[in-house]
Write a structure and sequence with these properties.
The chain is an alpha+beta fold and 208 residues long. It has one domain. The protein is built from four helices and six strands; from the N terminus they run αββααββββα. It has helices at 2-31, 65-92, 97-123, 173-207; strands at 40-43, 47-54, 140-146, 149-152, 164-167, 170-171. The chain starts with a helix and ends with a helix.
């Protein structure tokens, strides 16, 4: 019974991320104008809401062609199955709570974006915006616009100096959840695994 409650808690956390992510995307789709005309400034020029569509992976990278999009969505679908199974095994092994929470959040964020790719081309006609596409060919809705920096790099910088660059990522709740969870894993993973090894050693001694 205790195991069942833990499964519900962690997979429930993934579900909450999916629901929150999808609600924000549907609100943006239904109540914001696409592109620059519908942009809303939240904190001056630094942080804005900006409705855009991402046809591919992170930072708008694409595989190209309809087959490339189909391959990308199929890969995401297989990855979700793998992450879900990994989360199941972590709960079963009673791994460190912080580690399991991060994996649950990553699963929720990844599934949130997968939902867009699988369904939105048909349900929202968003590939591109306002046009229909088959199942598995939808585009991911992004809206959180952080205008970090843009301009020319100083000439004294090797290779890149004197060129114009813009660093202004546009992402969504799912992306933010994945990024924060991965960053937390990188920072605390060593400590969590060390604590987990100590726990296993104590349990081993108690069973002797």
């Amino acid at each position: 019974m205790n195991f069942k409650r833990e499964y519900l808690q962690y997979f429930g956390l993934s579900f909450i991320v999916i629901v929150f992510d999808q609600i924000t995307k549907l609100l943006v789709h239904n109540y914001m104008e696409y592109g620059l005309p519908g942009q809303i400034k939240i904190f001056g020029e630094w942080f804005k809401l900006h409705y855009t569509l991402n046809p591919g992976m992170a930072f708008g990278l694409e595989l190209g062609s309809d087959y490339g999009k189909l391959m990308l969505t199929s890969f995401r679908l297989l990855a979700m199955v793998g992450i879900a199974y990994y989360l199941f095994t972590l709960i079963q092994k009673k791994m460190h709570k912080g580690y399991v929470i991060c994996i649950a959040l990553i699963l929720g964020g990844a599934m949130g974006n997968l939902f867009d790719s699988v369904f939105y081309g048909v349900l929202l006609n968003n590939a591109p915006e306002g046009s229909h596409s088959p199942w598995l060919h939808g585009q991911v809705i992004d809206m959180l616009y952080v205008d970090i920096w843009e301009g020319f790099l100083p000439d004294w910088i090797p290779v890149f100096g004197g060129q114009y660059y813009a660093f202004w990522p546009i992402f969504n709740i799912a992306d933010a959840t994945i990024f924060c969870s991965v960053a937390t894993l990188l920072i605390f993973q060593h400590r969590w695994l060390k604590e987990e090894n100590s726990r296993l050693e104590v349990e081993s001694k108690n069973n002797e």
